[in-house]
Design a protein that fits this description.
There is one protein chain. The chain contains 2 helices and 7 strands; from the N terminus they run H-E-E-H-E-E-E-E-E. Mean pLDDT is 82; it is low at 1-31. 25% of the residues are buried. It folds into 2 domains: 1-30; 32-146, Ferric Hydroxamate Uptake Protein, Chain A, domain 1, CATH 2.170.130.30. The chain is of the alpha+beta class and 165 residues long. The chain is globular. The protein has helices at residues 2-29, 63-69, and strands spanning 33-40, 50-57, 74-76, 85-88, 109-115, 123-125, 140-146.
Amino acid sequence: MRLKAIALALIASLCLVAPSASLEARAANSISKTVTVVVDFGKKSGRATRVISLSNVSPGASGWTLLTQTKLKIEGTQQYPTGFVCRIAGWPTSKQQDCADTPTYKEGHWAYYVTSFTLGGGWLLSGQGAASHVPDCAGYEGWSWIAGGEANKPPRFKVENRACK
């Protein structure tokens, strides 16, 4: 009888613990991922830098996916329509670049920057394409127009370390 009472007490305690563990797991999975996308059209464009905060981002969303979620019109090249950014919001113009193939250094290009707060924060020129990169929660994705013949430079926007929300 005593053994049966202990078994019932153990089952009751597991029933109380299991739901709370389940709630904690659900809460961890429901944390919304916020990422900020920064598009710097360059000084010579005459356009203002765009800063767009995206919330409730899917944990596996790529940098390319986030760029398309900014509602800015994105055009890839004919060669790589969803893997190489040729034009963002009409920049550069079709007269400057036809987007038929990957632009040359002389024609200018979009440089892709990311942040990694585990590596110290600040802009980092991405070592992989936007379609392969999954940004950190509370991170930044940066696109900087590099005019023909210019060296790569990060977007003109200061990133800050911030908590994942």
